[in-house]
Amino acid sequence: MQPFTTLTGLVAPLDRANVDTDQIIPKQFLKTIKRTGLREGLFYDWRKQKDGSQDPAFFLNQPRFHGATILLTRDNFGCGSSREHAPWALLDQGFRCVIASSFADIFYNNCFQNGMLPIVLKPDKVLSMMNDVFAMPGYQLTVDLGSQTVTTPDGTRSRFEIDPFRKDCLYRGLDSIGLTLQHEAAIAAYETQRKAEAPWLFTDLCHNQGRA
After folding, report:
1. Burial 153-190 (b: 16+ CB within 10 A, else e)
2. Alpha helices, DSSP H, located in the chain
3. Is residue 162 domain-shared with residue 97, that is, in the same domain?
4. What tens digit of pLDDT does each residue of 47-82 get?
């Protein structure tokens, strides 16, 4: 997993509340377990008009927001089903950070497991940033995980809260597998010891696998 330390990036606005995971990545794109190639399904139903053409009003279709790495949105982002494809699709699009006034719990947790930083700011802060994004082409924010701050182009800083354990994992680029592999030597030593203590367990397992 890619570590997250600091990020200065273009901001894209999704000025909607209660965006659920089916809107982030519709069900027809859930057939894969790969984390790449999902950007085509990101906000798929909103990107299209009734005739199937691209909706020029939607931010993903606007050249000014191409290359954005920070998504700014509203309350209860990521509600609905617990599909992990939602953060995968956002990451595949290039977003490393999502800023909102609140998140659904499961989506919030999934972001950390995939190297993306979800930031909760007060609604008035989000509204002010949203207005500036629409008013100022090329609007960027700087996110510093170490200091837990978001800095606007005029130098205004907003502090966000984050669980220390999650912060450390994200800063070092460690998901659950990465955390486990930090103890790889101890795990290998235990397995060696266990095989010596009860070799029949491993012999039977190998024998059964061979028969299968």
Report:
1. eeeeebebebeeebbebbeeebeeeeeeeeeeeeeeee
2. 21-24, 44-47, 85-93, 105-113, 123-135, 164-172, 176-181, 184-197, 199-211
3. yes
4. 988 888 999 999 999 999 999 999 999 999 999 988
Whether residue 114 is found in the same domain as residue 13 = yes
Rounded-to-integer distance, Cα 150 and Cα 147, Å: 9
| Residue span of the structural domain in which 146 resides | 6-174
Residue 1 lies inside a defined structural domain of this protein: no
Identify whether residues 122 and 77 lie together within a single domain: yes
Give the tokens for residue 190. 């235990």
Tokens of 57: 């009003």
**Location of structure tokens 């894209």:** 12
Structure tokens at 164: 């220390």
If asked whether residues 141 and 84 sit together in one domain, one would say yes
Model confidence over 177-187: pLDDT tens digits?
Answer: 555 556 567 67
| pLDDT tens digits, 197-208 | 888 877 754 454
Backbone angles phi, psi at 117, to 5 degrees: -95, 115
What pLDDT score does 35 carry? 74
